[in-house]
Every structure is written in structure tokens, then in C-alpha cells.
């Protein structure tokens, strides 16, 4: 599945998501929440992040913030060796694993189905976080 198809899925199935491009990344946020993205798509290497070899033709990385229990089920062995250049394989995010972000390069097949489900999970997290903040602000 291409970046365009992932974008189309997000825009068609996840209401109230905003999109922003910056520095070779596409960010997806819930509503006006701009602190933690639902997901990002990294389109190119940059001076801060070149671990995935995104300079290769057609390679992109999807980054998704998921629930802690989902993350630990995916990665029960934190010491497992990781190849961040491997295509179509879920890995803890190279920089944001502590915040339960995962990544995958060029998802296909079942991994694409799982990627979209993880994006939906991240969307649910972001929506709940936004609604809690709105309720708190309303009470103040």
C-alpha cells in the first residue's frame, strides 16, 4: 500500500484528523491537538533521523503511538536485535519507543491491515486525550 492509500484511509475513516507536512514528515493529529500525533509518515532521512535508510527509492516509515499493553504484546523481548532498515516488519520506534510508538517500513499484506488497526487505536487514544482536555478546560 502506498503513502497515498494510507492517507486516503485516514481521511476517509478517521473524522476530525488534521494533516501537517514538515521536514520530510506527514503528521496526523486529532483536531487541534498538536502535541502528540496519531501517526506520522516519514518520507526521507534527515540530520536527526536516518536509521531507517529512507533515502532508498520508494521507502517510507509509518510511526504510530499505541497503548502500552499493545506495545508490550508486540515486543515482549526488549533486548531482541532490531534492523530498522527491514521492510514490512513492526519495530519499536527508534527514538520514541518509551512513549509506546511503533514503526514499520512499507507495510504490505497482513502488516498493512495491522498498521491500519494500530492507526485506529492511536486515533482512539488521541480522541480520548483531546476530550479529557476539553472537559477539564470546560470545568475551569
Short description:
The chain has 140 residues and is α+β, with helices and mostly antiparallel strands.
Q: Helix and strand string, N-terminal first?
A: HEEEEHEEH
The top level CATH class name:
Alpha Beta
> Quick one: how many beta strands?
6
Query: Unreliable stretches, pLDDT < 50, 5 or more residues?
Result: none
Q: State Rg.
A: 15 Å
User: How would you state the average pLDDT, rounded?
Assistant: 93
Q: Which range best describes the helical content: under 10%, 10-25%, 25-40%, 40-55%, 55-70% or over 70%? A: 25-40%
Summing up helix and strand content along with how strands pair, one would put the structural category as alpha+beta
Number of domains: 1
Side-by-side strand order of the widest sheet: 1-2-3-4-6-5
User: How would you characterize the largest beta sheet?
Assistant: 6 strands, antiparallel
CATH architecture: Alpha-Beta Complex
The percent range for strand residues is 15-25%
Give the CATH topology. Aspartate Aminotransferase, domain 1
Shape: globular
Discrete helix count = 3
The rounded distance between the terminal residues' Cα atoms is: 45 Å
